[in-house]
Amino acid sequence: MQGTIMGDSSGPIVQETTTGSQVAAITEALAERIGHQKYGIWFKKSIRFTLTDGHLRVDVPNLFMASWLENHFLTDITRATQSVLGTCPKITFAVNSELAGTGSQSQAGRISFSTAAAQIYPATGVRRQSQTPLVVTQNRRGSKLKFTLDSFVVGSTNELAYNAAKAVVKEQQSPFNPLFIHGGCGVGKTHLLQGICNEVSKCRPATNWLYLSAEDFANEFVLALKTKKLEAFRRRMRQTDLLAIDDIHFLASKPSTQEEFLHTFNTISLAGKQVVLVSDAHPKMIAQLSEKLVNRFVSGMVVHVDPPDFQMRCEICRRYAKALTRTAPSENLQVTRPPNRIPEDVIGYIAEKLRTNVRELEGAMLKLTAYSALQNHRITLSVAQEVLAEHLERCEPIVHVSDIENSVAAYFSVTGANIRSAKKDRTITIARHFSMYLARKHTKMSSAEVGRLTGKNHVTVLMGCRKIEELLERNGDIHWYSTDGHRVAKARDIFAQLEDSIRS
After folding, report:
1. Which is it for the CA torsion 108, 114, 117, 119, positive or negative?
2. Which of 190, 193, 188 minimizes the C-alpha distance to 315?
3. Which of 41, 225, 276, 440 is most deeply packed, by most CB within 10 A?
4. Residue ranges in 422-457 assigned as alpha helix (H)
5. What domains lie within the chain, and their CATH numbers?
6. What is the pLDDT of residues 223-251, one digit of tens each?
7. pLDDT digits (tens, 9 = 90+) for 349-369
8. Which residue has the higher pLDDT, 443 or 459?
9. Residue 457: pLDDT above 70?
10. What are the DSSP E strand ranges found in 286-343?
11. Cis peptide leading into 343, omega within 30 of 0?
């Protein structure tokens, strides 16, 4: 290979002067050499071959693909071409913007490459590191995230988490390290996490902070391995004063990524720096999370955020309504007048009907305000009931696996860790079977997915569900041991109490 061209192709760069049969023969030979599965992943949907006067041009969607294909498939492409043409042609790679957005785009994860670095350079077939700067989507020092602590509505259900967040901001070395915030969807966890970063950036501008999701961490780790930039990745993650990770439960069942994050956590923690983590579940209730990570997470401040109470929901509605009236309508919308003030009885109605999370409240307020502005209708309780009827019906409470596990564990006097363990004690086994059965009944998860969360395979889940079905059908007696000693109850009575507990 004599050269690799990195250029933009707003139009055809090279005119094809040979029949398509030779190109087809080359691609077929390449597929035979590397295997049809690899060919389908790396070449079939995202690469274009052009053969002109003994010169083979390979168009790729981005620089990452150019570097990857050159480093891993150059020899195969050369030999496949030689087997068809009988000679070794000049081979070049070219970045073609027309191919952007194809299936290969996901290979680069969430990192985009600067197109300003397009250049021509000699290619010897030796692996090299691309000099293209990486443009990363996450926020760092000097950036501003969406949510602030000032806009956070504080109440009895989240006051502890809020005060812990303020302590992290106030203290250079807070006593809460790590700070682990967990709770259901839409209760303000991400709001707190971003608020911490924004407040630290404002109060201590010299602080080097990094906010990203666990999925971004995993994607960047995999990309660093592929592009041999692991040291740069580690420097970026570990040389921070504040590391804020959202949705840390995403690392479950990813042992290699968990190991990398463990070392990252240790480095930051031992240096006296701050780590703040957010999850949908308590560390001990995240299935397939390594014991080492669990131990480190629970060594700090673990705080639960409950859904907002009625007064908090009303205040959230008021603030959101105020923000909506300050927002100018789109030029494309024919609005006859600005949205009018939402009465307190309407706010109370919405807050009473939607109890689970903030996003549902915001969605209802947005729909009602938009209807008022677009239809030129004054907002009244009757109008709200009519407009939001479908919205309220669709927003029935969602049952989470963590809710089921908590209820079952409390009823049978065991722990979530017991349910997910390999123990076969009678009480634990019964609790595990009920947990699996209720998860299959109240969620859309498959048996395999429930099995992954409980540390079992899908066959175990199916057998456990079948046993509960048989007990419910004949309403058999169930015996178990609790802290109060031996207990016995009818299967349907237990099931009914668990159902009530989950929905409450």
Report:
1. positive
2. 188
3. 276
4. 426-442, 447-454
5. 3-136 (3.30.300.180), 140-305 (3.40.50.300), 310-394 (1.10.8.60), 401-503 (1.10.1750.10)
6. 999 999 999 999 999 999 999 999 999 99
7. 888 888 777 888 888 888 888
8. 459
9. yes
10. 301-305
11. no
> Which amino acid is present at 145?
L
Q: For residue 227, which phi and psi values (nearest 5 degrees)?
A: -95, 5
Residue 354 · residue 362 · CB < 8 Å:
no
Question: Is the sign of the CA dihedral 210, 212, 215, 219 positive or negative?
Answer: negative
Burial (CB count within 10 angstroms: exposed 0-12, middle 13-18, buried 19+), residue 253: middle
**Contact at 8 Å (CB) between 264 and 231?**
no
Report whether 180 contacts 283 (CB < 8 A).
yes
Q: Is the sign of the CA dihedral 357, 360, 363, 368 positive or negative?
A: negative
Highest mean pLDDT among 273-277, 278-282, 354-358, 473-477: 273-277
CA distances from 317 to 53, 157, 352 (A): 68, 17, 11
